[in-house]
Amino acid sequence: MKSFKIFFAGELFDHKHLTGNLLLAEKINMLSEGKYKCALPQDIDADGLSSNEIRVKDLELLISCDAVLFNFDGADLDSGTVLEFTAAKALRKPAVLFRTDMRAAGDQQAGCDQWNLMCSGYPQTATLSLNAMALYHKHLKQNPQTLLQSMHEELAGMLISKFDEVMPGTPHTVDPDYLARLRESLGLPPC
Predict the structure, then answer these.
(1) 9 vs 82: CA distance, rounded Å
(2) Fewer C-beta within 10 Å: the chain N or C terminus?
């Protein structure tokens, strides 16, 4: 079975973000039986690095991945995540965008994605929106002791299904000249 490296983009600024990202990434890896292996930007060791060096390492990791998972939770989208989304779509990477935040957000019509309309409607992109509070209470009623694991397993299963929709049979390749121009425009060193 072919495995795909997935860049997992989202907020990573507090313990809930960090541990939640890690747990969901592990569940995706496990439940997909290694088909989808998440790479977390939060695992980049940023000690002693300048802001520019951190940005370069983040974008290098994104470029090295076959597809991207975007966590679009929050009252407003995380600006770094939006930059990563823009770069991923410029690289023509398959993507899954998900939102578990029950608060309404975005500037789209009723019944549309609950985030900024500039992040919607791209090819090879699937979306998943659900109410985390409802999912929480569903798993709380079933078994409070295993809530954290079971809730993340259910979400991971839904995300795996979305990746199955958008992923080609084999990883895509980007024209080397196009990639070189894109790297230059992002301020990245040449390969």
Answers:
(1) 9
(2) N
CA distances for 57 relative to 32, 53, 102, 117, angstroms = 27, 6, 32, 28
pTM (predicted TM-score): 0.88
What 3 state SS string does 113-174 have?
Answer: CCCCHHHCCCCCEEEEECCHHHHHHHHHHHCHHHHHHHHHHHHHHHHHHHHHHHCCCCCCCC
Reported as half-sphere exposure (CB side, CA atoms, 13 A), residue 134 has a value of 8
Whether 139 and 151 have beta carbons less than 8 Å apart is answered as yes
CATH number for the domain formed by residue range(s) 4-185: 3.40.50.450
**Distance of alpha carbon 71 from alpha carbon 158, whole angstroms:** 13
- Domain ranges for the chain, please list them: 4-185
* pLDDT tens digits for range 134-160: 999 999 998 878 999 999 999 999 999
Dump pLDDT digits (tens) for 74-133. 888 889 999 999 999 999 999 999 999 877 665 556 666 665 566 677 789 999 999 999
Pick from 86, 55, 70: which is nearest to 11 by CA?
Answer: 70
